[in-house]
Write a structure and sequence with these properties.
By secondary structure, the chain is mostly helical. The chain is built from 22 helices and no strands. Helices cover about 70% and strands about 0% of the residues. It is globular, with a radius of gyration of 22 Å. One of its GO terms (biological process) is transmembrane transport.
Length: about 475
Amino acid sequence: MSQHATLQRGLNTRHIRFLALGSAIGTGLFYGSATAIKMAGPSVLLAYIVAGIAIYIVMRALGEMAVHNPVSGSFSEYASHYIGPLAGFTTGWTYVFEMIIVALADITAFGIYMGFWYPDVPRWIWILSLILFLGAINLIHVKVFGELEFWLSIVKVTAIVAMILGGLGLMFYGFHADHAGFTTGIQNLWIHDGFMPNGITGLIACLSVVVFAFGGIEIIGLTAGESQEPKKSIPKAINAVPVRILLFYVLTIFVLMSIFPWNQIGNQGSPFVQIFENLGIKSAATILNIVVITAAISAINSDVFGAGRMLYGMSNRGQAPQVFQKLSKNGVPWMTVVVMAGVLLMGVVLNYLIPENVFMIIASIATFATVWVWLMILLSQVAMRRKLSTAQIKALDFPVIGWPYAPAFAIIFMLFILAMMGYFPDSRPAIYVGAGWLILLWIAYNIWVKPKQNPVKQDQSLHRNAEMES
């Protein structure tokens, strides 16, 4: 291991674009969509559109900062510099917490998916094998990680495109739909108790589920320190977000609800299985199992990468143990990968100790962490704008859209999501856990970090890091 190695810029535009795409397409879409549809009915389309607009604004805010100052640690670094060290500390560790929670859920899900084919093989064998495999991939070189994520994303995108085309075929030609007992067509969006069957309450309730489905897309910001051309690749990846949201979420859900009455979606397993089965594909469950396994591997791979890079950046600022600064000769923060793999081994134990319904609460906790990180990104961008001169603002290569109204809308939206999570009983425990987590971070910061912080040195360190990265 080299003490003088640095992060390698091995990610190109193709890697980053599909990394962002893959991180936003996972179990939240393949299975979580059915839950959102049951809550809001066809009006869930509005939830995906409104949430998608807010999340695009978040990504543009992050892009403005990442292109202006591409550093490892990304949004935690920006929160530390533009808001304060405590903000950066809570943002970074909350993101790591989110990645761990989601990865543990996906690790367990992977074991369940493999049980579909091999019910007699203990789940822990599959989980352990996957952890060792992904750990090895992340230790080799960041370019290897980028290539794996690219091909895993290709599988997911192909499955969704096939589902959309197949669904449109059912809508316009009625393939194999005559036996289903109902007709296909866009009239299914309003003939079953209306477009908003559960009222405005149902629409609001589904927002937290919809937001959870988008979680992970902020990983684009963490690639800035390892991107070959951050001023080109990051804007291209972020500008593709609206198209991805419209295509892979809005259009997918639109096709689903046009083929089936919204109140029948998900009653017979995944809605994707229903579409393939109605196309006459008998191996629909097997095809979907391959896709969801791919999605789980991709998500866990991204989680290990994201949490590792965040810990590396925080350790450089004294906000995480110094051991996370250790790099291999290929520029990989190997200790963060080892620690993440060790944490994921808890998934083997949790697979037996924690019942499935507890993971619904874990999903809510992950949603809280996601919204908190997005909120801090928005506040950091606002704080950065206030510190820049008029000339510096005009010189920004990738400014946020609709300043200052768009960021204000996104901030209000994030606060509204947190408020609604506290209002509805099913998600309320996540608010309690999130508040407790932030209190613990505040205590940890004041005990271990603040006494060692020197604001002047910290500011100088940031500028040195920025110069090194650029």
